Backbone:
């Protein structure tokens, strides 16, 4: 699948999602020379320094979410993405599930508490998800069966402030998808 | 100007910054003696007066002793205005003859005149025609993007997605916004014009965020994690060529912003364990740490005059600080007065005003010391403002 196709698919999805409120599909033909629309041309054929195409395929777009199977979240210390020893057994359970269910793949979702820069928190949440991912690949789960996504501090599990709330929001969650 | 607390070049942690106390900036007096008729004429006058006051360079006075006099007439022409004005100061002057139909064009012409007065009288860039974008957060994974004119008018909602939106940034053209959206269930960078059309810029695996367009409009700096942990990249828009700038296996990068000459990028990295500011020379990929004080230094924004504004956390809340990497750096950094509790600063194109959030409202701060001005007074959580560069 070429990157152009993938990006086009994303554009199509977006247009479908957004046509009601932004009109990105119906304006296209009528105002083909509108500088604003030219400005919006998608960037296609993204290549890295070695000239390799950069792929955008994601489990969320390719596979269906597995319903009915949930795992306990992994919790983190403030401003840290280190895995505490107490959290390891939770991840072991997820790894066992993936070993027993070859058609399942996993998205690890990283989260932060509300404090601090939300742009930095987005990166910190990604690193939290990736430390769980690294632990799982060390357990023998194939790297191509695990993807990550970070919500930073945008999607707290519990509303409010204070350490009792914050410690529940600094977390990694597990979402299974089926090939 | 009184210096409180001496700067100390080698201090760490809680060492004081220079806090500059000012009694507000010096202003030229302006008297508006022009005759006004009709509702549109009054709208022009009110808009102009507000713009001149918000520019920070002028105060409106009555009487004959003002430094600047604006005389002539603004007359009602049905649904618009016809202006014949004369602006005079210190032996210099310029004429202003225009007509406009409709409320929006009337306001626009008042903004144009205010910016022209700032340019010709003060030799500075005006901000009356600029815009400010920001985010309204309603709840968990439920935000939308908004925009208004620099004077708070023309407030409108740009997205109706009801999902998390992070870090909107204007492109240098002043009409395209880049932001991180969760509309697809994971973070992607979207690019949207004020006209409404939008597209996906980076839909790669992992994190896609932090898009900032270079001053020449050709290249986007962004944070991606498809190769591992989050790193700083540049993406050339026309060719699609992606270049990785950082390789910090134990740290993450965030919040890139270009230098005015487009040669360097300032960004946040926690490679030292706490989030601090670094600059990187794009061509050589050589990075330099530029902040060492305080537990966090985040959200940098670089202005045309070379100064970086950022949020610094010393004890408890953030304050807004300004440093010049070519002149004194962090040791000579200044805290903006009354900036306690503010975060996410973004420069106005006048390199003087800074728009910030205190976590629930958007305020305009003045690096020259005028008191903060609240931009909007709508209930809710208003965050992450970004000031357009034109």
Residues:
């Amino acid at each position: 699948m070429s990157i152009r196709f993938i990006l086009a698919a994303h554009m199509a999805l977006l247009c479908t999602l957004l046509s009601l409120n932004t009109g990105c599909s119906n304006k296209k033909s009528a105002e083909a020379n509108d500088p604003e629309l030219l400005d919006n041309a998608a960037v296609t054929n993204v290549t890295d320094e070695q000239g390799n195409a950069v792929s955008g395929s994601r489990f969320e777009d390719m596979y269906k979410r597995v319903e009915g199977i949930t795992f306990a979240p992994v919790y983190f210390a403030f401003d840290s993405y280190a895995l505490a020893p107490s959290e390891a057994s939770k991840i072991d359970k997820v790894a066992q599930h993936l070993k027993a269910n070859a058609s399942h793949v996993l998205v690890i979702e990283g989260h932060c508490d509300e404090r601090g820069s939300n742009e930095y928190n987005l990166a910190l949440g990604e690193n939290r998800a990736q430390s769980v991912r690294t632990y799982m690949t060390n357990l023998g789960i194939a790297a191509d069966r695990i993807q990550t996504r970070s919500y930073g501090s945008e999607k707290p599990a519990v509303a409010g402030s204070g350490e009792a709330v914050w410690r529940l929001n600094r977390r990694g969650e597990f979402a299974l998808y089926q090939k | 100007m009184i210096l409180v607390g001496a700067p100390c070049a080698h201090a760490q942690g809680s060492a004081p910054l220079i806090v500059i106390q000012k009694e507000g900036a010096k202003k030229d007096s302006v008297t508006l003696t022009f005759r006004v008729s009709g509702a549109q004429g009054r709208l022009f006058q009110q808009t102009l007066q507000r713009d001149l006051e918000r520019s920070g360079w002028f105060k409106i006075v009555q009487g004959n002793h003002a430094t600047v006099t604006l005389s002539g007439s603004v007359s009602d022409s049905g649904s618009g205005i016809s202006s014949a004005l004369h602006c005079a100061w210190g032996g210099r002057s310029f004429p202003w003859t225009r007509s406009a139909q409709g409320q929006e064009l009337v306001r626009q012409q008042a903004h144009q005149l205010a910016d022209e007065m700032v340019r010709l009288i003060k030799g500075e860039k005006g901000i009356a025609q600029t815009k400010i974008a920001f985010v309204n957060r309603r709840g968990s994974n439920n935000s939308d993007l908004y925009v208004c004119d620099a004077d708070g008018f023309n407030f409108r909602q740009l997205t109706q997605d009801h999902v998390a939106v992070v870090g909107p940034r204007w492109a240098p053209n002043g009409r395209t916004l880049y932001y991180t959206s969760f509309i697809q269930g994971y973070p992607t960078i979207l690019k949207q014009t004020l006209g409404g059309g939008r597209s996906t810029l980076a839909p790669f695996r992992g994190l896609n965020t932090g898009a900032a367009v270079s001053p020449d409009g050709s290249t986007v700096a962004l944070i991606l994690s498809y190769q591992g942990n989050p790193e700083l990249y540049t993406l050339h828009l026309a060719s699609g060529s992606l270049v990785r700038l950082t390789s910090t296996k134990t740290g993450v990068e965030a919040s890139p912003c270009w230098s005015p000459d487009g040669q360097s990028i300032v960004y946040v990295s926690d490679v030292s364990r706490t989030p601090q500011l670094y600059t990187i020379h794009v061509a050589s990929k050589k990075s330099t740490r530029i902040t060492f004080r305080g537990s966090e230094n985040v959200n940098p924004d670089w202005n045309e005059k070379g100064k970086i504004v950022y949020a610094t956390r010393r004890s408890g809340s953030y304050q807004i600080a300004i440093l010049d990497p070519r002149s004194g750096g962090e040791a000579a950094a200044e805290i903006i007065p009354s900036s306690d509790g503010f975060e996410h600063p973004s420069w106005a194109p006048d390199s003087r005003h800074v728009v910030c959030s205190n976590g629930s409202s958007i305020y305009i701060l003045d690096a020259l010391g005028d008191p903060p001005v609240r931009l909007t007074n709508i209930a809710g959580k208003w965050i992450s403002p970004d000031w357009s560069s034109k």
